[in-house]
Every structure is written in C-alpha cells, then in structure tokens.
Amino acid sequence: MKRNSVLKLEDLTSLDELDYINSIWYAIMKMEVGLLKLILADDIDYEDIGKLKFIEKLNDRFNNHKTHGDSELLLDLDCCKGCNCNKPICKFVGNHSGMHFALFFEMTDEKITDIYHCDWYGDIDFLDAF
C-alpha cells in the first residue's frame, strides 16, 4: 500500500482471503474485539501488557469512537516522528468523527513480533514534546 492512501473496509476482500496482517487491520477497522482475540497470537506480549490487556485497551478506543458516531475505522499510513523514526505506522481514523490513533507493527523476518500505540505521528514537531 502506498503512503497517503486511505483504505476502507470495503477495500479489503473477504476475511478468508486476507493474509495475517490484513486480517488484523480488518478486525481493528471493524472494531471487532472477538475477532482480535481469535487472530492475534497468544505468545506475543503486545505493548508489554499482554494480548488481553492490549485488546482491552483497543476496545476502550473502539468504544470512544462508537460514542462519537463511528461505525468503522479507515486505515491510513503515516510515519512515526519518535522512537521508530520515519518508519510507517498504521493510523486508524473514525469514519464519522475523524478521531484517530496509530499503531506500530513491529516486524522481524516478515512476522509480527509486537504491536503498540504510537503517539508521535502526523504534523507533530519535536518541540511539541517540551
């Protein structure tokens, strides 16, 4: 996927045709906690809090989006401006509210080894941290 392209749920094909990372994106975009519980690997300590706490944290975000009228999340690529300097992050944007959050997918040998929130993206300036 090229940068600055927005991906909608309808852009993804049926779940049984998606590869692993696209399946995760699909579940997040649909805000489907149950699906995330099924497809996220049990042996990864996501965000150093574990799979269930990580999913709980995502669910809090999903509920916030739903409260603001979002029925799905769009996916846009951005770049980390912090600890993962200029590496791509996945920005999930509410289809109604425009609210967003970003996740960094850490990969080793084309396998996901961690997923964690990134707060340093977009039009943020280094001086904004101080």
Describe the structure in your own words:
With 130 residues, the protein is α+β, with helices and mostly antiparallel strands. It has a single domain (6-129), classed as Nuclear Transport Factor 2, Chain: A (Roll), CATH 3.10.450. Helix content is 27%, strand content 25%. The protein contains three helices and five strands. The protein has a five-stranded antiparallel β-sheet, covered by helices on one side. Strand 2 and strand 3 (88-94) form a beta hairpin. Helix 1 (20-30) packs antiparallel against helix 2 (33-39). The longest helix is centred in the middle third of the chain and has 17 residues, at 51-67. The N and C termini lie far apart (34 Å). The model is unreliable at 126-130 (pLDDT under 50).
Task: Output the keywords.
five-stranded antiparallel beta sheet, 27% helix, disordered C terminus, 5 strands, single chain, 130 residues, Nuclear Transport Factor 2, Chain: A, alpha+beta, 3 helices
Q: Would you list the SSEs in sequence order as H and E?
A: EHHHEEEE
What would you call the quaternary organization? single chain
**Radius of gyration, Cα only, in angstroms?**
14 Å
Cα(first) to Cα(last) distance is 34 Å
- Strand percentage lies at 25-35%
Strand order of the largest sheet: 1-2-3-4-5
How is the topology of this model organized?
Blueprint lengths: L5 E2 L12 H11 L2 H7 L11 H17 L5 E7 L8 E7 L5 E9 L2 E8 L12
Antiparallel strand pairs: 1-2, 2-3, 3-4, 4-5
Helix pairs in contact: 1-2
